[in-house]
Amino acid sequence: MIPAGKRAAVVRALDDEGVDYVVTDETSGREYTAVATFPLPTAAVEPVLERLREAGIDESTYTVIVAAETVISRRFEALEDEYEEEADHAGNYISREELQAKADDLASGLRTYVLMTVISAVIATAGLLLDSPATVVGSMVIAPLIGPAMSAAIGTVVDDEEMFRRGVRMQVIGVVVAIAAATVFAFAIRTLALVPPGIDPLALAEVSERLAPNVLVLVVAIGAGVAGIVSLMTGVSEAIVGVMIAVALIPPAAAVGIGIAFVIPQLVVGASVIVAVNTLSINLSALVMLWYEGYRPQRWFREDDARSAFVKRAATLFVAIAVLSVFLGGVTYDSYVASTTEADIRTAVNDELDAMGFGTELIELEVEREGTLPPRNTERVVVTVGAPPGIGAEEIARALDRRIETTIDEDVQVEVRLVAVSRS
To answer: Model confidence over 158-169: pLDDT tens digits?
Structure first.
């Protein structure tokens, strides 16, 4: 819609850009005098809109952007050639206005958002307790988390404070609701004995992998954030990328609920760290990606405010991730120490059994470690040894105890279980 007094400037701008256009008189009697319609290649949308802003077309006028199936025009083909280099650089990214509109479309109403989050968290909790990866994956499909995560980043770079605050608020609500729903559901099924009495959630693979997160969870979260924002900028299916974001948030949130319901502090701490790190990483990666691709506020004099907000929020997210990454680094180091210690103990036991010459052999080795937070110490080593009939366990236990403690330089309890092996 062309406001009164702006028609000549708009036509001149379109002519300068080499755009095919149709200008129709507007006769409703309002402050608009004409309507301009014109086709653009995707890469040309943002530059041409910027040129029209200079001509006086701003957010106070009606500007409607729709996707065209086919445009048959020689001038349009020339325009595509002109912007081909920009398209290669920008990856056919959509305009700022389109990006904001898509972010608004992804932001569902609060009631729907809470309901879908509750359903997703309950299904994820059931999947974790069933030790069913398929069920856990199914829970992610319905999680409505991509909208709030992307809205916060978009609101920052375009200086839309309301969009930013709504995105942050909805993310907090989503995480809290997911944990609360998982806790209530897990407590209910435990109270109603819908799971076997005495079940240890940590014995389930789907739960235990959320127990001790390492630095690789950052890769998942950062990838999800980048994929989420790129999907909005390029038109890739947001539903598919939304599953990736849910992967980073819903299962660990459900694991927190299980830890609370089953009173497992170690699980609560480990899974909570995953939730916090993933949420922060998704926001940081999306924010940096948007700023890198050149999205800015519509008005140039608000760009300084947007830059200041970007720097402050990116720095805050980075510091928070760095602090939490200390825990992730500790877990990663603890996992490394645990694997190397077990390998050293296994080698020492095999060497000692060979040196004893009783015809003994190592059947099974179990290393138990103590402590809730890393780094943890080796507390107990259980060695199952196969030996010919008549061999006593005491001598083997003393020899293995000396050898193991010398190898790892720790005072540990060594338990030897002897299994009689007869060969004919």
So the answer is: 888 888 888 899
